[in-house]
Amino acid sequence: MGVFDAMNVSASGLTAQRLRMDVASSNMANVDSTRGEFKNGVWEPYRRKMVVLGAGESSFKNMFNKAVNNGKMSGVKVNGVVNDQTPFKTVYQPEHPDANEEGFVQLPNVDPLKEMVDLMSATRSYEANVTALNAAKGMYLKALEIGR
Fold first, then answer.
1. How far apart are CA 67 and CA 50, in angstroms?
2. Flagellar basal-body/hook protein C-terminal domain location, by residue (predicted)?
């Protein structure tokens, strides 16, 4: 295990959680966007985005063997940002400019409550990674003091 491996693992977690917060904020900003994407000559509402995270290794066994054998540890990996495929909400608003002939408007599939839960979860995970980073930094500083 290298000197900065713990910090690198925490840094990967910080990066991943910041992306989750950015995506949740983007979803909240577009909660009422009825014109998110222009497809086949028709506007579609904004579609909720989600961050897919994964481990740097495929299994705990692989991660453990790799850490024991060569000392390298991998952190969290962002596998991508995907669109949520749940159907759009439909409401009756005949005065809306994007209403169809029957007066129904399609709204984004963004649930503000779900986004707030995701945002709070990402914030707590971010704080945990900061705590781990500070603990590693403190251990390195104490190790340097021993050498004096």
1. 30
2. 102-145
Rounded Cα distance between 9 and 56, Å, is: 10
Tokens of 137: 């930094």
Query: pLDDT tens-digit profile of 58-100?
Result: 677 776 777 666 666 678 889 999 999 999 999 999 999 999 9
Backbone angles phi, psi at 98, to 5 degrees: -100, 15
* Residue-wise pLDDT tens digits, 48-59: 999 999 876 667
Please, which residues have CB within 8 angstroms of residue 90's CB and are 6 or more apart in sequence?
104, 105, 106, 107
pTM over cut 0.85: no
Can you list the positions of beta strands (E) in the chain?
A: 37-39, 42-44, 49-55, 76-83, 89-92, 104-107
Cβ–Cβ under 8 Å, residues 12 and 77: yes
Q: How far is CA 115 from the centre of its chain?
A: 11
Nearest to 10 by CA among 77, 75, 80, 79: 75
The average confidence (pLDDT) of the chain is 89
